[in-house]
Amino acid sequence: MRTALEPVVTPVAMGRIDRRAIDSGIVGYRLMLMAGAAIAASVLRHYGDAAGVDVLCGPGNNGGDGYVAAKMLQTSGMCAACYSLGDPVKLAGDAACARDDWGDEILSLEDYVPTDGRVVIDALFGAGLQRDVEGVAVRVIEAVNAFDIPVIAADLPSGLSGESGRVRGTALRASRTVTFAAPKPGHFLLPGRDLCGVLEIADIGIPSRCIEAETEGLWLNRPPLWRDALPRLAANSHKYTRGHLGVFSGGYRQTGAARLAAIAGLRVGAGLVTVLSPASANAANAAHLTTIMLRTIDGGADLDGLLEDMRFNSFVLGPGFGVGEKARDFAERILGAGRALVLDADGITSFAGYHDQLAEAAAKQDAILFITPHQGEFARLFPQIASNASRSKVEQARSAARETEAIVVYKGADTVVADPSGRAAICDNAPPWLATAGSGDTLAGLLGGLAAQGMPGFEAACAAAWLHGEAANRAGARLIAEDLANNLPAFSEFQEY
After folding, report:
1. pLDDT digits over 14-46, tens only?
2. Is there a binding annotation on residue 374?
């Protein structure tokens, strides 16, 4: 059976999902019982031989999940103790029912001391935390982090923002995190992903229709999101039907980045790839190219002549190209001709301070613009967006996409893809060894190659980012950028994913 899309929901959306489920007739306390049962099951499955469990309960429904888990673990024969942040008598609603069903002593969080051999259930704050952690919770979190004991977080490690994955003052480092119904952005955006440990998504009985009704156009970037849009070869396909990618080279000392991008574009399926080189770099490029063609492009007139050939339908501009007016001029000519353009590296930096000029060029009819910045490049091109630390990486990427009418691939270990309509996807498959020279050039080439084959923009960007990470995983920890193209999976692998 083919895997379905995997939506990622914000804490606000999750609140609406809960209300929809309850309005449909599901008793709210039943959802809490199911959530607590999922936490207890994770403890028994992974730490069943522990000496006991200490449940740190907060003042809201997250604390209620903790009391339910404690009761179930106690019933199963495990020694359990509950510690409350604040007066447990003040709990209301479903959380108060869970406290009453616990029916045993509730200790003050101020008295909690980590104990070797026991497991901690973190039920202090859930994904909806809106302020910095303070007071006794800070001391307890820091004490647990300093002690080498397993921590299972209910919904999200306390101190993390479920919206952005950022730390609110301080945060627990969990061994495992059990979340409910659907994951939150904070589970995947850094540093949240590192603090969540192993993520478990528990089905607590919320109907899928309730989740689907409140999705916000945000998904985990997995093949089901884009596999049906992958290029398909017909029996009569030939190289000219598979698109022609042009990759611009820098001067004779800056040619390697363009070749990495060109090789990736060819390997991902573009029918033809040409390195577009200044005359000074022709000899250096020619010495390294075989299946990739070479053409001299020194100035705007040369480029205009090339653009008369409609078979050139996709371009990569930026890797090793150089920063300045020439890059801006080339980008505007390509977009003005209605072609797809992947603007990367030096191409992005060339538009720092020329944001409106780029947006105007991208608005040309039929033009498709992809922008692939890392954090520093993003800050240079979108300083106002980047300076707003209260916005998540997802929202920053969405804003940048809307402002420039571009598909933005905001790179990093938690790459976010966003398009002007607001659709977005978070990538979670990039291994740390992908942080090596030339990997970004390869990503630009993958994207350019998929665009050359006519793949829709958002899907092409998501596919390129996922394939990039998967190739790195297959290459292994001794990866260098030259390995990536040769470790790409075949498209046929995704048909039943």
Report:
1. 999 999 999 999 999 999 999 999 999 999 999
2. yes
Is 483 annotated as belonging to a binding site? Answer: no
pTM: 0.95
Residue 203 among known ligand-binding residues: no
Instruction: Give the CA angle between residues 128, 132, 133 to the nearest 5°.
Output: 90
The secondary structure of residue 120, as a DSSP letter, is E
122 annotated as a binding-site residue:
yes
> For 331-384, what is each residue's pLDDT tens digit?
999 999 999 999 999 999 999 999 899 999 999 888 999 999 999 999 999 999
Residue 298 marked as a ligand binder: no
**Residue 447 annotated as lining a ligand binding site:** no
Q: Which stretches of 190-239 are assigned E, i.e. beta strand?
A: 198-202, 218-220
- Helix residue spans in 363-485 (DSSP H): 375-381, 383-386, 393-404, 439-452, 457-475
Cβ burial of 486 (10 Å; 0-12, 13-18, 19+) is exposed
Annotation-wise, does 101 bind a ligand? no
386 in a labelled binding site: no
C-alpha of 181 from chain center:
19
Question: What is d(CA 44, CA 49) in angstroms, rounded to the nearest whole number?
Answer: 8
Structure tokens given for 114:
């980590």
Domains of the chain (ranges, CATH numbers): 11-216 (3.40.50.10260), 223-494 (3.40.1190.20)
Question: Is 309 annotated for ligand binding?
Answer: no
49 is in an annotated binding site: no
